Amino acid sequence: MSDEASDSRYGFLPEPFRQAAKPGTVALRLETTRSREGVLDGAWWPRSRDISAELPDLVHALTGHLGPIVSVGLDAGAWDDVPASLMVDGRSVHIDRYPVGDDTVIITRGDRDHFSLLVVPPHASQEAALASMARAVRVGGSDSAQQILIDTGVGSGHPAETS
């Protein structure tokens, strides 16, 4: 049995970070196996669609356990006022704008190590959010982010259109 410190060396978050977040912390779960065979590597439940407010805490949490995060890929249409980069802990994190859908972000550490995270919409109930996050980290999971959100009652994963 390995302890949490040795798990961190392999790029996995220790148990306290995989549990449901308390107010004021980042709601984040990552797959707990080294294989990373599933469609998704984890899940994140931001409190809002303000990427400038939400992303620094996510990157800070991931950096402490995965190493430096160099970029984040996201669908700019799903977030408010997306900058080209953000400073997090004194490091610039580039923001790549991809049409990946608002239900996914791609985290890149190093040159080519990508992590695909389900994004649980901020409006989701706690029960639905936690169920979605648990499904996203299921070993060998083959469901898309959108399908997980539909199956757990969050909806289509796409923001409601406003009139």
Q: What's the gyration radius in Å?
A: 15 Å
Number of helices: 5
Q: What can be said about the biggest beta sheet?
A: 7 strands, mixed
SSE order, one letter for each helix or strand: HHEEHEEEEEHH
**Low-pLDDT segments:** 1-24, 157-163
- Write down how many β-strands occur, each being a DSSP E stretch of 2 or more residues: 7
The helix fraction, in percent, is 25-40%
Distance between the terminal alpha carbons, to the nearest Å? Answer: 55 Å
Q: Which structural class do you get from the secondary structure elements? A: alpha/beta
Rounded mean pLDDT score: 78
General shape:
globular
Strand order of the largest sheet: 1-2-7-6-3-5-4
- Strand coverage percent: 15-25%
Structural commentary:
This protein has 163 residues and is α/β, with parallel strands linked by helices. Helix content is 27%, strand content 22%. It is built from 5 helices and 7 strands, in the order ααββαβββββαα. The protein has helices at 4-9, 15-18, 51-66, 126-136, 145-151; strands at residues 28-30, 42-44, 69-74, 85-88, 91-97, 104-109, 113-119. A 7-stranded mixed sheet has the order 1-2-7-6-3-5-4, with helices on both faces. A hairpin with a 3-residue loop joins strand 6 (104-109) and strand 7 (113-119). The longest helix has 16 residues, at 51-66. The chain is globular and about 40 Å long. The model is unreliable at 1-24 and 157-163 (pLDDT under 50).
